[in-house]
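Retro notes (design track)

What went well: tokenization of the new backbones is finally stable.
What didn't: we kept losing track of which sequence belonged to which structure.
Fix going forward: every design gets posted as structure first, then sequence, in one message. First example under the new rule, 581 residues:
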């Protein structure tokens, strides 16, 4: 496929806001894939060259993009920058400056050049990158150049997420979305949509059945549902394996001989940030290959007590890692085993995974395995829960002993019960910021006064608004928030956002903040959970309790389905209180 053809599809996606139409456009695009192009097409739709977990960056910022554009348009860099200050998008600046006919470049050729740009390093590489980019741009039409620059600068905004791409793949092959589930299953196991798409396209659905966990490729994590009482957990599971819930960073550790990689909950490579976990895995696990999960949590070396999340979170920093390791040492409490020396453990039961996990983690200072209580008694479970809460932990996670590990799924195989907050709502929500309002009064000085926040629905690949939030941020955080959001500013409502209210500034859904609220109510102002005549859900007295969460992508925000479950649970609790009083 020609790159020019690919950007025609990108152009169509840009102006489409109906999800069904987007799926249709993607299906048409995929149908034109030739040979082994499919993987590359999917990565480019994701604005990347590699799966999300591979930290390959282009290493080209706005300055270099301006250099390259100035070079191929034959004008001064200052003029390019001036145009950028008006347009705010180098893609649009390119459309003003370039007027070539269009290239005959194939998608594969452009991909290879981009690969070269991304992998060049060392002395002189900056100049080489710029001249490669200028060389590419000079062959391209304005539309090609627009999208190429957006890809390179990480600003490709097609309004599609992975679920839409997966639907598009299924439609391309069988004309409906009946194969999406199997595509998703494969994606959950290897986290590489390009690889899944290539296999699916070339060898059909059956080939996806052979995808299984692989050391070095992070598995999308299994997630927990919520419960509001010990009795509710026992009612659902009958018999449960109950573990303490530690409040730190979820880590998925991949050991391959002496190489150890640590992936975060959203599959980012944290190996450099957590050297003690890398070292401990080399020392405390002797098997050649293993994948296991656990929670990394800061502790007090004098008392051995775990610290709250606010302390652990300091280990997210990229700099002065040695110093941080001294000041805030981590332990990793392992709670699951996914793979061991050639054997896929995700298809084993919790009981057998756990037994093996206990066997392979040798005694040592950093790695340990969670304690567990096996019980069928709600009273016993409750006592365990209170004991953990008293020790400063977050609560418990109850697990179904005969369940396999279901990658990427949030279901009742794991149920979390957390210590109550003061308000009515027992749990916090992770919401995506989709816009902001300029401030009034004191906030005018920051140019930001409140945030429009949303939750996510995987089925529709859309964000639905749930709250306007104006409290919980310090002055410094407001300033920082504005800086972060201004990088994501868009002219109108982003295609994937469903909203009734309009903020002063719309932003691409990217940043997730943690919100505490008193209650979930019904409201005509918001779209989360709105159906037919039913009003949407809104949060009463929302306040931010955790600034932008680096460990969460927008698609990992709280889901509309979870909001509905929380709303129903809240109704039950209120009903109980009324009958008790
Ligand atoms: P939360 O913000 O409540 O941690 P979450 O969306 O990150 O929620 P959930 O699947 O809802 O994730 O809750 C399980 C999380 O709890 C895991 O992602 C993990 O980070 C953490 N955790 C702590 N201790 C355990 C444990 N013993 N077993 C499983 N998960 C645990």
């Amino acid at each position: 496929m020609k790159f020019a053809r690919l950007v025609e599809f990108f152009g169509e996606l840009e102006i489409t806001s109906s999800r069904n139409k987007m799926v249709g456009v993607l299906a048409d695009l995929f149908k034109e894939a030739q040979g082994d192009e499919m993987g590359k097409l999917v990565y480019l739709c994701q604005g990347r060259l590699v799966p999300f977990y591979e930290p390959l960056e282009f290493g080209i910022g706005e300055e270099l993009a301006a250099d390259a554009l100035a070079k191929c348009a034959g004008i001064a860099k200052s003029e390019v920058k001036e145009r950028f200050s008006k347009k705010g998008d180098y893609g649009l600046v390119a459309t003003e400056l370039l007027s070539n006919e269009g290239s005959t470049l194939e998608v594969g050729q452009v991909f290879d050049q981009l690969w070269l740009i991304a992998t060049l390093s060392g002395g002189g590489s900056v100049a080489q990158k710029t001249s490669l980019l200028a060389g590419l741009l000079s062959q391209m039409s304005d539309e090609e150049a627009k999208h190429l620059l957006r890809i390179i600068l990480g600003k490709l905004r097609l309004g599609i997420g992975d679920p839409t791409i997966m639907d598009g793949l299924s439609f391309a092959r069988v004309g409906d979305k009946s194969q999406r589930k199997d595509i998703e299953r494969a994606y959950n196991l290897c986290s590489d949509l390009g690889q899944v798409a290539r296999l699916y396209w070339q060898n059909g659905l059956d080939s996806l059945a052979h995808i299984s966990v692989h050391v070095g490729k992070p598995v999308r994590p299994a997630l927990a549902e919520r419960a509001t009482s010990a009795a509710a957990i026992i009612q659902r599971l009958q018999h449960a394996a109950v573990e303490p819930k530690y409040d730190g960073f979820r880590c998925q550790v991949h050991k391959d001989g002496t190489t150890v990689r640590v992936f975060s909950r959203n599959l980012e490579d944290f190996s450099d940030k957590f050297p003690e976990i890398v070292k401990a895995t080399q020392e405390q696990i002797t098997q050649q290959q293993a994948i296991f999960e656990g929670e990394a949590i800061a502790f007090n070396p004098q008392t051995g007590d775990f610290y709250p999340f606010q302390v652990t979170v300091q280990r997210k920093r990229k700099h002065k890692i040695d110093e941080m390791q001294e000041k805030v040492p981590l332990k990793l409490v392992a709670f699951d085993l996914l793979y061991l020396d050639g054997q896929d453990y995700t298809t084993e039961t919790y009981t057998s995974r756990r037994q093996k996990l206990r066997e392979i983690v040798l005694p040592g200072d950093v790695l340990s395995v969670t304690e567990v209580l096996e019980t069928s008694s709600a009273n016993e479970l409750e006592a365990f829960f209170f004991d953990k809460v008293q020790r400063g932990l977050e609560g418990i996670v109850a697990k179904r002993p005969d369940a396999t590990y279901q990658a990427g799924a949030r279901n009742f195989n794991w149920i979390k019960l957390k210590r109550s907050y003061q308000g009515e709502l027992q749990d916090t929500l992770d919401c995506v910021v989709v816009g902001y309002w300029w401030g009034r009064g004191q906030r005018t000085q920051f140019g930001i006064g409140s945030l429009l926040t949303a939750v996510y629905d995987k089925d529709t690949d859309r964000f639905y608004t749930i709250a306007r939030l104006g409290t919980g941020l310090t002055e410094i955080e407001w300033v920082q928030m504005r800086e972060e959001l201004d990088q994501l500013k868009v002219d109108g409502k982003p295609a994937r956002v469903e909203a009734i209210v309009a903020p002063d500034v719309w932003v691409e859904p990217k940043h997730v903040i943690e919100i505490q609220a008193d209650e979930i109510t019904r409201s005509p102002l918001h779209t989360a959970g709105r159906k037919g005549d039913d009003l949407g859900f809104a949060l009463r007295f929302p306040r931010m309790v955790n600034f932008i969460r680096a460990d969460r992508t927008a698609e990992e925000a709280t889901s509309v389905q979870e909001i509905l479950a929380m709303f129903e649970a809240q109704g039950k609790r209120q009903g109980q209180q009324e009958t008790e009083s």
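Added context from the reviewer: Residues 223-224, 243, 245-246, 250, 265, 295, 335, 370, 397, 416 surround adenosine-5'-triphosphate (CB under 6 Å).
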